[in-house]
């Protein structure tokens, strides 16, 4: 059976701005396929395998990867996998990005030929990127004459490309094996975003000593395991704020902070602003 080729005509309705953001919730197993366009993938929940004809790559919350036109890939072993697909037309991506192409991270993440580069963002980085993704989706879906939506959507794309390129530049490239060893404990953290975890619990899940676990996390994330889990809980709090269905005290309880003041202090430490400030910024972006 011939592999599926996804064409631009299926997704792009405006020739002036070939840009589309599609949320897959859930993303189901999908056989090998390729695209006529570029695809930037953000995994925001669950886990699975992204595979090609020659390799498999585990993906989970925080995984970002970039697929060039013509590269075949698919998904298998998906479990509650949720992701955003940013679809970018070849003509749009060929535009002059000014000094963006001078960033080493841009060259490594977005200009590789014949392979799929991967990046793992931490929870606080993800919490900062998702609102830009969601705003880009809103503006790209709109594209009404006289609203500036095309310019806004394109601006969001540039912000994402610069942000991801800078993040890629900051991460040591020898982390892949370490990240694989940490995959079990990171999945455990993901399943327990609603409560604090102890170092003892984490070392038992990881089957490592405290010093080894701390060293690996510091190497990959510049955070201790407990700090990384706190970042995950705050990222979860951000998603709950974006949904707008719970009060701040309910969000604090849902993310395992029994004291609202402590929740606010931890939120400010991770996000650089209070939960209320984040809520106002998010509401203003939507409006």
UniProtKB/TrEMBL annotation:
<dbReference type="InterPro" id="IPR003313">
    <property type="entry name" value="AraC-bd"/>
</dbReference>
<protein>
    <submittedName>
        <fullName>DNA-binding domain-containing protein, AraC-type</fullName>
    </submittedName>
</protein>
<keyword id="KW-0805">Transcription regulation</keyword>
<dbReference type="InterPro" id="IPR020449">
    <property type="entry name" value="Tscrpt_reg_AraC-type_HTH"/>
</dbReference>
<dbReference type="InterPro" id="IPR009057">
    <property type="entry name" value="Homeodomain-like_sf"/>
</dbReference>
<dbReference type="InterPro" id="IPR037923">
    <property type="entry name" value="HTH-like"/>
</dbReference>
<keyword id="KW-0238">DNA-binding</keyword>
<feature type="domain" description="HTH araC/xylS-type">
    <location>
        <begin position="183"/>
        <end position="281"/>
    </location>
</feature>
<dbReference type="InterPro" id="IPR018062">
    <property type="entry name" value="HTH_AraC-typ_CS"/>
</dbReference>
<dbReference type="Pfam" id="PF12833">
    <property type="entry name" value="HTH_18"/>
</dbReference>
<dbReference type="Pfam" id="PF02311">
    <property type="entry name" value="AraC_binding"/>
</dbReference>
<dbReference type="InterPro" id="IPR014710">
    <property type="entry name" value="RmlC-like_jellyroll"/>
</dbReference>
<dbReference type="GO" id="GO:0003700">
    <property type="term" value="F:DNA-binding transcription factor activity"/>
</dbReference>
<dbReference type="InterPro" id="IPR018060">
    <property type="entry name" value="HTH_AraC"/>
</dbReference>
<keyword id="KW-0804">Transcription</keyword>
<dbReference type="GO" id="GO:0043565">
    <property type="term" value="F:sequence-specific DNA binding"/>
</dbReference>
